[in-house]
Amino acid sequence: MLPRLPHRVLDKLHWWAVLATQAQFLVSVVALLRAPDGRILLVENRFWQGNRWGCPSGYMKHGETPERAARRECREETGVMPRDLAIARIEANGRRRMEIWVTGTVDLDAAPTALQRLEITRAALLAPEDALARMRRSQAVVVRSLLPDA
Q1: Over 70: is that where the pLDDT of 150 sits?
Q2: From CA 29, how far away is CA 60, in angstroms rounded?
Q3: pTM for this one?
Q4: Torsion (CA) 23, 114, 78, 124 in degrees, nearest 10
Protein backbone atom coordinates (compact mmCIF):
# COMPACT_ATOMS: atom_id res chain seq x y z
CA MET A 1 0.00 0.00 0.00
CA LEU A 2 1.33 3.41 -0.93
CA PRO A 3 1.54 6.12 1.72
CA ARG A 4 -0.91 9.01 1.49
CA LEU A 5 1.10 11.72 -0.26
CA PRO A 6 -0.20 14.78 -2.06
CA HIS A 7 -0.92 14.12 -5.76
CA ARG A 8 1.72 16.65 -6.78
CA VAL A 9 4.40 14.77 -4.83
CA LEU A 10 3.26 11.38 -6.18
CA ASP A 11 3.27 12.74 -9.72
CA LYS A 12 6.82 14.07 -9.38
CA LEU A 13 8.04 10.81 -7.80
CA HIS A 14 6.41 8.85 -10.60
CA TRP A 15 8.12 10.93 -13.31
CA TRP A 16 11.51 10.77 -11.56
CA ALA A 17 11.17 6.99 -11.43
CA VAL A 18 10.19 6.86 -15.09
CA LEU A 19 13.07 9.08 -16.19
CA ALA A 20 15.54 7.12 -14.05
CA THR A 21 14.49 3.74 -15.46
CA GLN A 22 13.51 4.56 -19.05
CA ALA A 23 15.30 5.89 -22.10
CA GLN A 24 15.57 9.65 -22.36
CA PHE A 25 13.09 9.63 -25.23
CA LEU A 26 9.91 7.96 -24.01
CA VAL A 27 7.52 6.09 -26.26
CA SER A 28 4.24 5.11 -24.67
CA VAL A 29 1.48 2.93 -26.04
CA VAL A 30 -2.21 3.43 -25.33
CA ALA A 31 -4.63 0.59 -26.07
CA LEU A 32 -8.19 1.35 -27.11
CA LEU A 33 -9.78 -2.06 -26.53
CA ARG A 34 -13.37 -2.97 -27.29
CA ALA A 35 -15.43 -5.96 -26.23
CA PRO A 36 -17.56 -7.75 -28.87
CA ASP A 37 -20.59 -5.66 -27.84
CA GLY A 38 -18.67 -2.39 -28.40
CA ARG A 39 -17.92 -1.50 -24.77
CA ILE A 40 -14.51 0.03 -24.05
CA LEU A 41 -12.07 -1.27 -21.43
CA LEU A 42 -10.95 1.49 -19.05
CA VAL A 43 -8.66 1.37 -16.04
CA GLU A 44 -8.30 3.73 -13.11
CA ASN A 45 -4.63 4.57 -12.64
CA ARG A 46 -3.43 5.32 -9.12
CA PHE A 47 -0.70 7.70 -10.35
CA TRP A 48 -2.76 9.95 -12.62
CA GLN A 49 -3.95 13.22 -11.10
CA GLY A 50 -7.57 14.34 -11.21
CA ASN A 51 -9.62 12.16 -13.52
CA ARG A 52 -7.74 8.89 -13.24
CA TRP A 53 -9.73 6.80 -15.75
CA GLY A 54 -8.34 5.99 -19.17
CA CYS A 55 -7.27 3.32 -21.60
CA PRO A 56 -4.60 0.82 -20.55
CA SER A 57 -1.20 2.28 -21.33
CA GLY A 58 2.49 2.11 -20.58
CA TYR A 59 5.99 2.60 -21.91
CA MET A 60 7.57 0.54 -24.64
CA LYS A 61 10.72 -1.40 -23.83
CA HIS A 62 13.72 -1.37 -26.13
CA GLY A 63 13.10 -3.64 -29.11
CA GLU A 64 9.34 -3.97 -28.57
CA THR A 65 6.80 -3.27 -31.26
CA PRO A 66 3.84 -1.10 -30.25
CA GLU A 67 1.53 -4.13 -30.52
CA ARG A 68 3.78 -6.26 -28.29
CA ALA A 69 4.10 -3.44 -25.75
CA ALA A 70 0.31 -2.99 -25.67
CA ARG A 71 -0.20 -6.75 -25.11
CA ARG A 72 2.36 -6.75 -22.31
CA GLU A 73 0.90 -3.68 -20.60
CA CYS A 74 -2.67 -5.03 -20.83
CA ARG A 75 -1.59 -8.40 -19.45
CA GLU A 76 0.40 -6.75 -16.62
CA GLU A 77 -2.28 -4.22 -15.68
CA THR A 78 -5.47 -6.27 -16.10
CA GLY A 79 -4.59 -9.89 -16.89
CA VAL A 80 -6.31 -9.46 -20.28
CA MET A 81 -4.76 -10.50 -23.60
CA PRO A 82 -6.04 -8.25 -26.42
CA ARG A 83 -6.43 -9.46 -30.01
CA ASP A 84 -6.30 -7.85 -33.43
CA LEU A 85 -4.02 -5.01 -32.35
CA ALA A 86 -3.19 -2.41 -34.96
CA ILE A 87 -1.51 0.99 -34.83
CA ALA A 88 -4.19 3.64 -35.16
CA ARG A 89 -2.44 6.92 -34.36
CA ILE A 90 0.99 8.32 -33.50
CA GLU A 91 1.35 11.63 -31.67
CA ALA A 92 4.32 13.69 -30.57
CA ASN A 93 3.79 14.67 -26.97
CA GLY A 94 6.44 17.25 -26.20
CA ARG A 95 10.10 17.10 -27.18
CA ARG A 96 10.91 13.88 -25.35
CA ARG A 97 7.77 11.80 -25.62
CA MET A 98 5.74 10.02 -28.28
CA GLU A 99 2.40 8.30 -27.83
CA ILE A 100 1.34 5.41 -30.07
CA TRP A 101 -2.34 4.45 -30.02
CA VAL A 102 -3.32 0.90 -30.91
CA THR A 103 -6.81 -0.47 -31.29
CA GLY A 104 -7.91 -4.02 -30.63
CA THR A 105 -10.49 -6.32 -29.13
CA VAL A 106 -10.93 -8.20 -25.88
CA ASP A 107 -13.17 -11.20 -25.28
CA LEU A 108 -14.80 -10.01 -22.07
CA ASP A 109 -18.32 -10.02 -20.67
CA ALA A 110 -17.32 -8.28 -17.43
CA ALA A 111 -14.47 -6.02 -16.35
CA PRO A 112 -11.28 -7.86 -15.37
CA THR A 113 -10.48 -8.31 -11.70
CA ALA A 114 -6.88 -9.57 -11.92
CA LEU A 115 -5.49 -6.06 -11.61
CA GLN A 116 -1.96 -4.86 -10.95
CA ARG A 117 -2.89 -3.26 -7.62
CA LEU A 118 0.26 -1.12 -7.33
CA GLU A 119 -0.79 0.92 -10.38
CA ILE A 120 -4.40 0.06 -11.27
CA THR A 121 -7.19 0.48 -8.72
CA ARG A 122 -10.23 -0.51 -10.84
CA ALA A 123 -11.27 -1.56 -14.33
CA ALA A 124 -14.56 -1.13 -16.17
CA LEU A 125 -16.17 -2.08 -19.45
CA LEU A 126 -18.27 0.90 -20.51
CA ALA A 127 -20.47 1.91 -23.41
CA PRO A 128 -18.56 4.40 -25.58
CA GLU A 129 -20.51 7.46 -24.41
CA ASP A 130 -20.01 6.47 -20.74
CA ALA A 131 -16.30 5.78 -21.32
CA LEU A 132 -15.80 9.14 -23.03
CA ALA A 133 -17.52 10.93 -20.13
CA ARG A 134 -15.38 9.15 -17.52
CA MET A 135 -11.92 9.18 -19.10
CA ARG A 136 -9.23 11.80 -19.07
CA ARG A 137 -10.02 14.63 -21.45
CA SER A 138 -6.78 14.23 -23.45
CA GLN A 139 -7.58 10.57 -24.08
CA ALA A 140 -11.27 11.21 -24.77
CA VAL A 141 -10.35 13.54 -27.65
CA VAL A 142 -8.25 10.82 -29.30
CA VAL A 143 -10.74 8.03 -28.59
CA ARG A 144 -13.56 10.06 -30.10
CA SER A 145 -11.52 10.44 -33.29
CA LEU A 146 -10.78 6.70 -33.43
CA LEU A 147 -14.31 5.42 -32.83
CA PRO A 148 -16.31 4.97 -36.00
CA ASP A 149 -19.60 5.49 -34.15
CA ALA A 150 -18.69 8.40 -31.86
Answers
A1: no
A2: 7
A3: 0.80
A4: -140
Q: Is the separation of the CB atoms in 74 and 56 below 8 Å? A: yes
Q: Is residue 30's pLDDT more than 60?
A: yes
SS3 37: coil
Q: What CA–CA distances, in Å, run from 6 to 10, 44, 52, 58, 119?
A: 6, 18, 15, 23, 16
Distance CA(78)–CA(71), nearest Å, equals 10
Burial class (CB within 10 angstroms; exposed 0-12, middle 13-18, buried 19+) of 11: middle
Q: Which helix (H) or strand (E) holds 44?
A: strand 40-45
Model pLDDT for residues 79-137, shown as the tens digit of each residue: 999 999 999 999 887 767 899 999 999 998 888 888 888 889 999 999 999 999 999 88
